[in-house]
Amino acid sequence: xxxxxxxxxxxxxxxxxxxxxxxxxxxxxxxxxxxxxxxxxxxxxxxxxxxxxxxxxxxxxxxxxxxxxxxxxxxxxxxxxxxxxxxxxxxxxxxxxxxxxxxxxxxxxxxxxxxxxxxxxxxxxxxxxxxxxxxxxxxxxxxxxxxxxxxxxxxxxxxxxxxxxxxxxxxxxxxxxxxxxxxxxxxxxxxxxxxxxxxxxxxxxxxxxxxxxxxxxxxxxxxxxxxxxxxxxxxxxxxxxxxxxxxxxxxxxxxxxxxxxxxxxxxxxxxxxxxxxxxxxxxxxxxxxxxxxxxxxx
Length: 298
Hints:
D-Maltodextrin-Binding Protein, domain 2, 3 domains, nine-stranded mixed beta sheet, 11 helices, 21% strand
């Protein structure tokens, strides 16, 4: 009985609603004999009579009424779900909702969105700037379609597409006395440090590395924005540690940028989506542009 064909239930609903196999046949563009045969098949599979048949009417038995009430509610729920999906599909025709890491939102995202708007003037992109952890909640609740940012460990219900490798860099004022081409955490530990705060994914990465290395970093300035860190470093107040993707404008501000010398001092940056996510036209085009833009920058 668990393998009952959905078409049999649909035919049953039509016959029950109209009280007539003939009317059900007319509604479904089939013959009355075909409808009668399907009802009989359903009754045989269930093992109980569903209709009291007369020459003019087909009335539900008490058992048929029980099935009718249950199937009608189930079909209404299915139709409600389909209607909701149709509404979402209409909304998605011109709108893309995304979340983005702060380091990307202040560096690469403006150029990406400006280019996208030129190419697709009828599109609308809604952006939430947020941390990776908060972004996963947005994805789970379907408030955004995808997230651009660093990889998050242990993604069970999500999938990560790596686009670029993003190394950590040290940004220094030109007059700073450290002149090496690469630097270790130990070598900058005594400098006045400007670091992102512990709410950021970058700081979490740095803290894990220095814990393994046994190095102690005591930042003089802890900020939430990469742009603030760059501004403080540009003013000569110290050196800052930032991912490469966040310092596109740093070199233009006269900062000297040096890679951190550590095999773990990097992260993957890409796109996170919920498992099973199906792209639509504009989201697919935006993802393609993000891939191209980030790879060109790298």
